[in-house]
Amino acid sequence: MIRKLITGISLIIYSAGFSQQDSLSLSLDQSIEIALENNLDLRRADLRAETSEVNLRQSRSNILPNLNASINGGMNNGRSIDPFTNTYIEEQLTFSNAGLRFGATVFNGLRLRNSILRDKYNLQASEMEVEEARQNLVLDVTLAYLQALNNMDLVKLAKVRQETTSKQLDRLEVLYNEGSGNPAAFTDIQGQIANDRTALVRAENAVTESMLNLSQLLNVERSVVPQPREAAVFLEEYRLSPEEVYEQALESFPSFKARELRIEAAKKNVSVARSWYFPEISLFGQLNTNFSSAARFFTETGTRVTDTGGFVEIGEETVPVFTNETIFERQEIGVYDQFNNNLNSVIGVAIDIPLFNGFRARNTIALQKIVLEESKVELESTKLQFWQSIQQAHAAMEASYKEYNILQEQLKAYEESFRVNEIRFVNGVSNIVEYIISKNNLDIASINLANARYQYLLRVQVLEYFRGRI
């Protein structure tokens, strides 16, 4: 109830907005073109395809080796180890390290190759899903466009019915005012004109709703008015059987191709999971250096004699002991020199052999196999849904075509019947009841014929959609 209330309020607001704006008269092709440009669901499908393309680029890039550089620096206070001499010092120390690391995968159970193939299939599937979304949108716009045309035709019929009744109302009103004729005929025709006006209001409201639906599909703010000339379509009998439509759908419809590509991607995902059973072989290399503010070198500048503070006894004489001491000049070592002097490199091969990893590889493979089976079931389900929908659409199309031909004959009969009854009623030979019954029969036949005609066109469009011709 709440949803219906909200929909009704939205329709009133939207219709009021349409009445204040210029309408947009479009052909079916123009409507489809605008919808393809503006529809948000189609844009979302495009974005999913772009995401799949990025994933594929990343999978291909994973083959390339890794090359990373790093540098850090800091300050240390108190007792610490001098990175230059590897001895303990008691001073403030400024340090820095720099490195360049290289890594390349040589073998990992074909994980990279299968990942590329998986993402390639996913990209192709996403592209097929974009085409599927495009065809769905074209079908929705086509059906909405035809429905709007149908409702516009029903408005025309309602206006013609009201005009016919109004003529009789004017004639009977004159007779009523003159006091001649049956007074009940005048009141009966008043009731009939009220019915015709109500039918016209409902028909016009149906047009407003169908135009609203069409405008929403096109994602435009202006009211979309189909061009009436599009309604003139000659009905030809549809010649293809349900089996023929289904066979063509299997060959060309993007839904099936997308599901098949998802199956191939799921198979590759199983192969990716199996790669965790294999060892991973990789090459690595490193280039490292460092800097320390405690790093210094000393240059000999001479010697000097210094008193050691010791004594020796020579006879009875005490003689102090002196020694020659080498004099050094301390010099700081610059950052560039330290980085250059401390440069070292490492190169090697690494082999990572999986022994036990909590059954991660086995469980991952089991999960991916389930995903693969789900993909197969999804394909079979899609085929079944299409076959059932094609059968239903084809049966409804045939019924509509037969009904259309029958209603054409019925309309001709009721037109002649109403012509005769109208003449009889004007000449006072028949009564108002016979006239109204004859008129209602003609009105109902006209409406039923218009509906059957558009129902047939709608079913044909659905079948053409399944064939991939939209």
* CATH fold label of the largest domain: Outer membrane efflux proteins (OEP)
Task: Characterize the biggest β-sheet.
Answer: 4 strands, antiparallel
Described by the principal axes of the CA atoms, the overall outline is elongated
Name the CATH superfamily assignment of the largest domain: Outer membrane efflux proteins (OEP)
Describe this structure in words.
The chain has 470 residues and is of the alpha+beta class. It has two domains: 13-68 and 108-286 and 358-466, Outer membrane efflux proteins (OEP) (Up-down Bundle), CATH 1.20.1600.10; 303-330, no CATH class. It has ten helices and ten strands. It has helices at 2-19, 28-38, 40-61, 111-178, 183-218, 242-252, 254-274, 335-341, 360-426, 432-466; strands spanning 24-26, 66-76, 79-81, 88-90, 93-107, 224-226, 280-292, 296-314, 317-332, 344-352. The chain has a four-stranded antiparallel β-sheet, covered by helices on one side. The chain has a two-stranded parallel ribbon with strand order 1-6. A hairpin with a 6-residue loop joins strand 3 (79-81) and strand 4. Helix 4 runs antiparallel to helix 5 (183-218), helix 4 runs antiparallel to helix 10 and helix 6 (242-252) crosses helix 9 (360-426). It is elongated and about 175 Å long. Residues 1-21 have low confidence and may be disordered.
